[in-house]
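task queued by scheduler; priority normal; single chain, no ligands, no partner chains; default sampling; output format set to structure tokens
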Amino acid sequence: MNILIAGCGYLGCALGTALAADGHRVWGICRSDASLDRVRAAGLEPLRADIGDAASLKTLPAADAVVACQAPSRSESHTEDYTSTYLRGTSLLLNALKNQHGIRIVFVSSTAVYGPRDGGWVEADSLIQPAALTENSRVLWQTEQAVLAAPISGMVVRLSGIYGPGRNRIDAMRSGRFIPPMSEAWTNRIYREDAVSGIRQVIKKGQPGHIYLASDDMPATQKEFYSWLLPKLCREIPPMPPAAASDAEKKDSKRCSNQKLKMLGWVPVYPSYREGYEAILK
């Protein structure tokens, strides 16, 4: 397959490397010299373009699939918001692809679109209440709707919190720069390589118009997770918050079910935070 990746950061480069290793031809959209070098190092073919600039998207190569996994820039010289990065950028990308016959697009979103659930379970197709969402989460949901309504085959993968090498807060916890919250709020995670394999599975077997949720098998409360991890870092467990504060945080949380993605044949290598963080600590 010919695959185009828009958003070659922490997730996108790892995804491109895995797809290239599978034998696919993979391009990575780049808008800066730094990103060109990063994409080359990951084994992708760099393609100079900017999804926020319609003119630069006019010469995109013919592709079988596109993965939109961009994120707002937070560099010192350039800051973007969710609307320009997700809604406008993805809409321009969809417009540029509309005449490519048979192409599939996967938009990588977030489980933040489920909003507060009082600690309850959510599935891939759980009903969304846009009015209950934060402004940024609402923009993500609007972008999902644009992808699913597009004249090309669109799919959505909602990821829970990504962690892995280089993104795990271990150094900050060891140094005491980050004091973990110890509430009963539920948290959901996915190791980067499992997120990559989930997206790959959706590219291969996902159904157009469908939404998939990628998370590990075991949601955990903040108290449970940090009580397990901190002793391994030789750090003391902080005091528990007042019950009322803990209950308030729990109301804003949720537990994510990955069953729909598993029905495509996906199995996480790191089914819980324990296996994932043990691998990082080694």
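post-processing summary
- The chain has ten helices and 13 strands.
- The chain has a mean pLDDT of 95.
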